[in-house]
Amino acid sequence: MRRIAIINQKGGVGKTTTSVNLAAALARGGQRVCVLDLDPQAHATTHLGIEPDGKAPSMYDVLIDNKPLGEVRRRVEDYLWLAASYINLAAAEVELAGVVGREVILRDLLQPDEGAFDYVLMDCAPSLGVLTINALAAATEVFIPLQPHFLALHGLGKLFETTALVSKRINPHLMVTGVILCLCESTTKLAQEVLRDLDNYLDKSRGAAVPWNKARIFNTRIRRNIKLAESPSFGQSIFGYAPTCHGAEDYRELAEEVMAQTPTVIAKRVTVQETVAAPV
């Protein structure tokens, strides 16, 4: 089971769009996928057609009350499950402040799910607080969506520093797998310069004792596409909303690229209790 944290402390770079649409593309490829919405804004939850109204259990109950993930997640479509978020998740940062081992709560609660899914994608908040640290402690891989702008590139230093600290102190198996270029206009001079600078930075890290020493830039570029911006308001992934647009094509290719990386893992697959989401 690949546990992937999709993170970037900068907002508006395509993080939730990537989490939802990559998950949907993998599910359509026959992979069993669970999305964990760790953002109090609950954008991934809304994007997948679930109204975050606070009536159903959410990731808040998982982190604060140790509720099993099996009692929180629900099936939103074939091969795709969601553990939803709600605004009360924002209080978790404060409520967990004095809890011993607060950084590894999610890791421990994911253990019973080992083998139940092929992929667990964690959509993280645009910050580097307790929620994101929990994701990094539970993950084996990190994907970083990045808009090819200078300021977005500049923030990577802090992000890499955080992954290095988590790898050193909490999760030695954590690795940065790659960077996904989103909202991309590859023909612009700026995009080409950012790509070159990022490529040079990653090349200099080869062989170093850092979690990103094998990271690469994914070949697939997520082009700027208005359909990707429209689909959340309809509670659908891009494949439900506009399956023939460029956005769907790009995320389908990204999913194929991700699946091609899948390591050979011998693991027992277990039965998942399915709760089908009611239409909203």
- Helix-strand category: alpha/beta
Q: Taking strands numbered 1, 2, ... along the chain, how are they ordered across the largest sheet?
A: 3-4-2-5-1-6-7-8
Helix content: 25-40%
Largest beta-sheet details: 8 strands, mixed
User: Unreliable segments (pLDDT under 50, ≥5 consecutive)?
Assistant: 264-280
N/C terminus separation: 31 Å
- What form results from the Cα inertia axes? globular
Overall pLDDT level: 89
Share of residues in strands = 5-15%
Q: Helical element count? A: 12
What is the strand tally?
8
Q: What is the chain-wise order of helices and strands?
A: EHEHHEEHHEHEHHEHEHHH
Based on CA atoms alone, the radius of gyration comes out at: 18 Å
Which SSEs are present, and which pair or pack?
Blueprint: E1 2-6, H1 15-28, E2 33-38, H2 43-47, H3 59-65, E3 74-77, E4 80-83, H4 92-95, H5 105-110, E5 119-124, H6 130-138, E6 141-146, H7 150-154, H8 156-169, E7 175-181, H9 189-204, E8 216-217, H10 226-230, H11 238-241, H12 246-260
Parallel strand pairs: 1-5, 1-6, 2-4, 2-5, 6-7, 7-8
Antiparallel strand pairs: 3-4
What tags apply to this protein structure?
single chain; 280 residues; alpha/beta; 8-stranded mixed sheet
Description of the molecule:
The chain is an alpha/beta fold and 280 residues long. The chain has twelve helices and eight strands. The chain has an eight-stranded mixed sheet with strand order 3-4-2-5-1-6-7-8, with helices on both faces.
